[in-house]
Amino acid sequence: MDLETLKIKSKKDLIISNEERMDQESFHNQKIKQEWLDLKADFELLLIKAKTDHQQMYRQKWEYYGGKADAKVYAAKPFDIKVMKTDLAMYIQSDDDILRIQNKMGYYETCVDYIKGVIKSIDNRGWDIKNSITWKQFEAGMV
Fold it and tell me: Which residues, 6 or more positions from 98, have their beta carbon under 8 angstroms from its beta carbon?
């Protein structure tokens, strides 16, 4: 599932579709909250995996740019520049593989933040449903 799919799903899930049966909407709220909590856990695990991949890739690039990698690595991808230790971080941080993983991590962080926002909206939706039920009771003279 990607961010666009999450946006479409949230628009569908957060709408109160049956204003006459708010009690049913209240039960539905618990169902959709569980779905979104599952999505949050899934994306958090993807983020953890991306962070682990980043750490491993960082070490490999540190060895590569620092001149400590295996000779097979340099045979496959030559690098003839002697990099000073003070410049090592700049080379690593601008490497295409590192940037790709950082973009992936940023994407997953955005998805997790979006899902957290939807969960907060679901919680607020429960408050809105409760207030709507209370208002209907008031209108009916039950309060």
Answer: 54, 57, 58, 61, 92
